[in-house]
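ARCHIVE CARD
Drawer: 12
Card no.: 0347
Subject: one protein chain, sequence and derived structure
Cross-reference: see card 0346
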Amino acid sequence: MRAFLWKGQTEGKGAHKEQEAMWIKWINTYRLKDKSIWDIQLRSVDTWTWTEMLKFREILKPHVKWSVGNGVNVNFLHDNWYCMGVLHEIFRRKEVSLLRIEHEDSLAYALRKFHSPRDKHDTDAMNRCRNDMPILSDRADVVCWNGA
């Protein structure tokens, strides 16, 4: 049972098919509900285990970086994919508003908006970021551990 919960199901003649483990499906369905682990609010009714996991986010956050592929799973504003850091920490609220990018927008979706023509309200931070945008590919986005 433990192997199934952590690794998923074994299929045919000893070959493993990569599947999402049962507990990961449960976390995604009941805890995250299509949100990022970084955006979940701690609630007073949360279990001790979940509360402790969420407390570690601030310790882990500087070490988690996205290697951008197609940009579908990367949050434009809240995930650490940009060379200068997390964009919502770089941009002021007014800049985010001027970009017309929503907090839940993926990198792939936001890039279509972000590459719109520059206008007179663009700030230096916005122009620097616009010049450093990644070129998306067909490969999946990958979360990486930066031990530094």
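Annotation on reverse: The chain has two domains: 2-59, 62-145. The beta strands are 64-67, 142-145.
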